Automatic annotation (TrEMBL):
Signal peptide: none annotated. Keywords: Isoprene biosynthesis, Magnesium, Metal-binding, Transferase. The keyword Cell division does not apply. CDD domains: Trans_IPPS_HT (cd00685). Its cofactor is Mg(2+). Belongs to the FPP/GGPP synthase family. This is Polyprenyl synthetase family protein. InterPro entries: Isoprenoid_synthase_dom_sf, Polyprenyl_synt, Polyprenyl_synt_CS, Prenyl_diphosphate_synthase. The keyword Magnesium applies.
Amino acid sequence: MSQTTVSAPAPDSALRTRLLRESMSSRAKAVEATIDQLLPPAAGAEGRVVEAMRYATLGGGKRLRGYLAAEVASLFGVDPARFNRVAASVEMLHAYSLVHDDLPAMDDDDLRRGQPSTHRKFDEATAILAGDALQTMAFEILSDAATHSDAAIRIGLVSALAAASGAAGMVGGQMIDMAGEGRALSLPEVERLHALKTGCLIRYAAESGAILGDADLSLRTRIAAYGHDLGAAFQIADDVLDATASAEELGKTAGKDEAAGKSTYVALLGVEGAAREARRVAERAQAYLDCFGAEADRLRDLIQYVVDRRS
């Protein structure tokens, strides 16, 4: 029997992968420290909900959305003290959505990042309150003058996050997802579902860095388009992972989409077809960064990371 050999990545590819991982790790630590500072433990009866908020936001995760906010902001010369606050804000908003998604009334998942989900660690009522508080705190951070001295930029951040996370964005996508269980959705319907549920917040995370940097409209538009396609590639890869990865790799229950009768990219296109679609969308995302030169290399490499990841 002949053996199939896998070639090692080219040195340049291996170097860029290492630089991306180092960059993501460094920014994740900065975001983690910022969240820890903004959300200290609290005494009194309300301390339990703060503990749950900290449990849901600290101690792990890819910090993809926070990374996007920070990395894009750095393209426009933003002070790290400012962009780390915006990165922390979007991670809090994302954490709230995961806490609520894991509840029995939603996706009913007992695992998150390899640990008991928040409602399993505490209780359902505390998890709901923790999610509510994380959502409101995300906006509180953006509205604070410490995030930016220009009120117009703060309002721009608040408005964009509200649009990305409400009924016309993430929440609307979750509603479509729940309504679609056990029903065959078409490919355009699945694309719209995930553009709202997952894509809108990823697009916002990228765009927030441009808003914070007061970028001109043409550059902000290109960054938003990059974020849109990155979000699409992320979700397609996520569907492939749900069908092919183990619970240990994912850090959450594997195969839940199929068990719930959800329409996914894999259900419609097959594993190989979905992987090809992820690569196609990723290539389109790359083109939006052409005008930024080498300074955007980490954002370019992030596209490949999103498609190739195993967790």
